Amino acid sequence: MKISTKGRYALRMLLDLAEHQNDGFIALKDIAARQDISKKYLEQIVSILNKSDMLQTNRGFQGGYKLARTPDKYTVGEILRLTEGGLEPVACLAHGTLNCTRGCGCATLPVWQGLDRVINEYLDGITLQDILDQQRQMYSNNYVI
After folding, report:
1. Residues paired with residue 66 on neighbouring β-strands, in sequence order
2. How far apart are CA 66 and CA 43, in angstroms?
3. Residue 118: how many CB atoms within 10 A of its CB?
4. Is 60 left (phi over 0), alpha (psi -120 to 50) or beta?
5. Sorted alphabetically, which Gene3D superfamilies does this protein's record hold (predicted)?
6. Which SS3 state, helix, strand or coil, does residue 3 take?
7. Residue 59 half-sphere exposure toward CB, CA atoms < 13 A
8. What sign does the CA torsion over 117, 121, 124, 126 have?
């Protein structure tokens, strides 16, 4: 499993919206500038996120995007599964069914199932709010006299 730029950028975009949630609707160009991501690429990501009701959209003057839920209701696992199509470490576990003719007698299957479980439990245990809190904690402890 390798997380693509689409997944990483979607996470950064949603974190940016979470960080600026009190600013109303945020223009895509502002997110692109702050995150140093192409606006064109963010438009592709927004298309995916809009289909899943993760975002609220406002068109026209003062238009933009904001989170449809509070940051504590978005998990990293949910975001990555949506943008990556799945997080399975091996192809035979894709789509929740065993897609392998050797499945019944495969000695390594429990290894891959265990890894899949650990990945999903870990990523589903981290919310956007957790990341924001961790970032704030890191910066609050980083002072110089």
Report:
1. 56
2. 14
3. 11
4. left
5. Winged helix-like DNA-binding domain superfamily/Winged helix DNA-binding domain
6. coil
7. 0
8. negative
DSSP tag of 81: H
71 DSSP assignment: G
Three-class SS of residue 27? coil
In the numeric block, the tokens 């997110």 are attached to: 31
Confidence (pTM):
0.88
Contact 48, 4 (CB under 8 A): no
Spatial distance between the Cα atoms of 27 and 65, rounded to a whole number of angstroms:
6
What the block records as the tokens of 49 is 């996120």
Query: Is residue 133 a contact partner of residue 72, using CB atoms and an 8 Å limit?
Result: no
Over range 83-104, report the average pLDDT.
Answer: 78
- The whole-angstrom separation of Cα 57 and Cα 13 is 14
CA distance 73 to 53: 12
Residue type, 115: L
The pLDDT tens digits of the residues spanning 35-62 come to: 999 999 999 999 999 989 899 999 888 8
Count of CB atoms situated within 10 Å of the CB of 62: 9
* Distance separating alpha carbons of residues 138 and 69, to the nearest angstrom: 25
CB atoms within 10 A of CB 51: 10
